Amino acid sequence: MTTIAPTAPTAPGRPRLTRWLLRLHRPALSVWAALVLVTAAVLLLLYGPLADAAAEAWRQYNSCTDWRNCSYDQNAILRYKDWYTYATLAVAAPPLLAAGWAGGAFGKELESGTARLAWTQSSTPVRWLAVRLAVPAAAVAAGTALLVWLHHLAWAAGNSRIDTAKQWYDVWTFHTNGPTLVALALCGLAAGALAGLLSRRTLPALGLGLLLTGAVWVAAQLLMPLLWPTRTSTGKAFFALPNSSWTVRTGKHAEVPYGDYHPASHYWPLQLTTTALLLAVTALLTLGCFLALRRLTGKTTA
Questions:
Q1: How far apart are CA 54 and CA 74, in angstroms?
Q2: How high is the pLDDT of residue 185?
Q3: Domain ranges, ordered by start, for the chain
Q4: Alpha-carbon distance 158 to 174, whole Å?
Q5: DSSP letters along 228-248, please?
Q6: pLDDT tier at 128 (50, 70, 90 boundaries)?
């Protein structure tokens, strides 16, 4: 493979390199900020007036005794359900957005020669890569963490008050309610960067970054219930599990039904173990980025 041998760069200092990066990707940063602000506004509505209206509608519904004269605000219930779904999907988007942006940005800079120009005039390749990973990672982590916190507040406002509220173990609700989503977003950023460094073309890198992130997400979802020991219930107790329990596996042994499940108290152990696993994958992908850069440029100094 032909390597790109950078010449000795002039040292502009890390702050100048960061400012240049922010200026170069100002449109993407503006879109990201707008997405965070709009989604945060919707989540605050779900936390306050929308949850209150839906909870009151369910109170009216559950207090009905004469269905011929029963009156309740069905629109409030449906409105909360719809906006919760939209907001949850928006909060779940950062991992794929980060992967697509990083793949496209890294692929474009390498395809157009912008990266090579930076290496010869303003920065070493290692510093170039470090800044291009660190600055977006800070923006992605901060924005995603804010949305996760607000989503958890919105979910908690409806939990136990709204009969159709999602359970804690719902696939989308679980990830958008805790730090696993922040780890997934950072993983998507690293996956996109690696895709860009490997393909060095915009569209293939974008697609490969999305594919890698999707694969990690699916693998994490499959492994997540196995990362913390389940509890087992047998016989009659199996049919009396609390509604908030997540049944992972069911079956029969010697004609006695049994079920392996996670109670609600396992929420944080599952969140933290899954987050640790995703951060480990992110570290490996980041290491892969630096190894791919070294293969691309040859041995260089920081």
A1: 8
A2: 96
A3: 14-226+263-297, 230-262
A4: 15
A5: SPPEEEEGGGGGG--TT-EEE
A6: confident
